[in-house]
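Assess the record.
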Amino acid sequence: MLTPLTDRQKKMIVNNVTKVLRTKNINHLSKQSYNYLNLCSGFIAHYNHYGFMDYYYDTDRLANDILLNEDWNSNHSNFRIGDKDYEYYKAKGDVYKEIVKEAKDVTMPLFASC
């Protein structure tokens, strides 16, 4: 069984990614936030934290990838209360939803539709 994020962990991840996006400085990305984002769908595999930071040096790229992968990572409606790992996936989705709000606030998506 997967261990869900605690409220403290969720807050720390959201606050850290928010700091990265608002300051446009990927060097603020914590190991905890890297581990969270790296396990989200749609993020390419990286050998380590530093490879991830190198790829997302332009934090607008990170914000846009967060937005592009919103549906994959914030909607865990196929899990129901009582299902194995429900709490884990619900917590993961809740964190992603909060990160998406911040990404929408700090950057204009590169993929904006016409």
Q: What stands out?
A: The chain has a mean pLDDT of 89.
